[in-house]
């Protein structure tokens, strides 16, 4: 069917199941690929609606200049919607936005004004202040204010939210949303909560953003700088609605960028850093949820805008974010190794056991070391060699409690720890690694377990 223009496309945003990255957790995780919209972001529908509404109200007409501040993606959407209708576009951006975004904006004919990223809200050189000053000093200029425009909230409440509900058959239980202004998460949250109140709406922001403190303590914290783009707030949005938001979690630049890179390698999802942050938060939360949970994650930025940043090994190394891509060997996890073990129950000693009792446990179970556990927590370890050295010095010590002779506890790792991570722990003078399972139980892995897993594969 012929479309009148690129913004008249009404196709649903694709939602795809995450398989490989989520293999270690029970819930289903679904990615909503907002970056496949025409402008590479969820802002495409917002930009079109804002322009159409301003035209209907007589606020703008072709030949005028539309002004806004942007982290890049909203500006690209605005330029795509505006330039084809005969408007000029002037955008104010922080200097941290990627080279690719700046190039795309200039290629479309938008004029770009760059301001320092460290100019915080209220400072004369901040993006918002510069954009507002430009509007006041330019003739025939209109401030679209996409981040704080009421239509941004309305689009997500009336379109995005219903679409998510329909595509999941109403079975969504958790929604993870990168938070910038608060309009998207509040709009979607309002709709989904109206359908089922117990749906969990979780915002994701970088370390240094202000929304977690705002939600938890109802006060603004001092913002700090972060490398991530298209995510995070420096002041409270007027469309921030805490009544429909259950939690705000923070993700480091390091984890967000690397999760984004892993999405491309493992799932062929070519998204940006804010999407990586949202997915990292969802995977982290999913490790503590059951099979009845269905998690939707908003993938709101396009990876092609970050080739010079998060997808550049050189840039990642320069910033200290680089993590070597997992190899096929690294894909073996602690959970995989535990699945190969014939013995599933942990053999352990209690602090009140005597050395004699501990040695008998070792002998009966054919093991050479045991963790010492108190109330579900590993507090130490003991080995045959240690017991032998004790008895050489004092043969009466066999009736002494093991707590007085225990060695360092084994390191503890999660079930999704890779075999390389486990190996590193075992090289640090540890004879075993404890795996903390989701049900609170502990299990022990040794070097021989790792070798068996490698040879088994």
Automatic annotation (TrEMBL):
Per UniProt, which keywords does this protein have? CBS domain, Pyridoxal phosphate, Transferase
Keyword Transferase set for record: yes
Entry coiled-coil feature ranges = none
User: Which metal ions or organic cofactors does this protein require, according to UniProt?
Assistant: pyridoxal 5'-phosphate
The CBS domain sits at 342-397
Task: Write out the transmembrane intervals.
Answer: none
E.C. number: 2.5.1.47
Recorded hits in PANTHER family, A to Z, give: CYSTATHIONINE BETA-SYNTHASE (PTHR10314)
Q: What is this protein called?
A: Cysteine synthase
Question: Origin organism of this chain?
Answer: Prosthecochloris aestuarii (strain DSM 271 / SK 413)
């Amino acid at each position: 069917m012929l479309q009148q223009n690129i913004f008249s496309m009404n196709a649903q945003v694709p939602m795809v199941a995450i398989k490989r990255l989520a293999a270690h957790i029970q819930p289903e995780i679904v990615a909503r690929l907002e970056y496949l919209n025409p402008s590479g972001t969820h802002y495409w529908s917002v930009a079109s609606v804002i322009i159409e509404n301003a035209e209907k109200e007589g606020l703008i007409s072709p030949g005028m200049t539309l002004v806004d501040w942007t982290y890049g993606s909203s500006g690209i959407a605005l330029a795509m919607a505006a330039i084809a209708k005969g408007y000029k576009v002037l955008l104010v951006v922080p200097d941290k936005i990627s080279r690719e975004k700046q190039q795309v904006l200039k290629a479309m004919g938008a004029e770009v004004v760059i301001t320092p990223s460290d100019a915080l809200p209220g400072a004369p050189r901040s993006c918002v202040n510069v954009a507002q000053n430009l509007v006041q000093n330019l003739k025939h200029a209109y401030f679209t204010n996409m981040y704080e425009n009421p239509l941004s909230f309305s689009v997500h409440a009336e379109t995005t939210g219903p679409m998510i509900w329909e595509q999941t058959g109403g079975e969504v239980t958790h929604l993870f949303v990168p938070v910038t202004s608060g309009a998207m998460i509040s709009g979607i949250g309002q709709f989904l909560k109206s359908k089922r109140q117990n749906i969990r709406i979780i915002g994701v922001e970088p370390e240094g953003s202000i929304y977690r403190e705002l939600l938890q303590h109802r006060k603004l914290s001092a913002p700090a700088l972060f490398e991530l783009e298209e995510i995070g707030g420096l002041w409270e949005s007027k469309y921030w609605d805490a009544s429909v938001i259950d939690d705000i979690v923070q993700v480091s630049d390091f984890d967000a960028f690397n999760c984004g890179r892993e999405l491309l390698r493992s799932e062929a999802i070519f998204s940006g850093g804010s999407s990586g942050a949202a997915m990292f938060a969802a995977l982290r939360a999913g490790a503590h949820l059951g099979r009845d949970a269905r998690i939707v994650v908003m993938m709101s930025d396009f990876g092609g805008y970050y080739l010079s940043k998060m997808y550049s090994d050189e840039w990642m190394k320069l910033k200290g974010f680089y993590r070597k891509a997992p190899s096929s060997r690294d894909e073996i996890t602690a959970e995989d190794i535990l699945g190969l073990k014939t013995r599933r129950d942990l053999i352990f000693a209690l602090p009140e056991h005597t050395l004699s009792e501990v040695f008998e446990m070792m002998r009966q179970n054919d093991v050479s070391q045991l963790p010492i556990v108190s109330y579900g927590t590993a507090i130490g370890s003991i080995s045959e060699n240690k017991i032998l050295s004790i008895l050489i010095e004092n043969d009466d010590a066999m009736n002494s409690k093991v707590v007085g002779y225990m060695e360092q506890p084994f390191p503890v790792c999660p079930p999704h720890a890779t075999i390389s991570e486990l190996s590193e722990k075992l090289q640090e003078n540890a004879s075993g690694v404890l795996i903390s399972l989701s049900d609170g139980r502990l299990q022990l892995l040794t070097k021989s377990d790792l070798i068996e897993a490698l040879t088994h594969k």
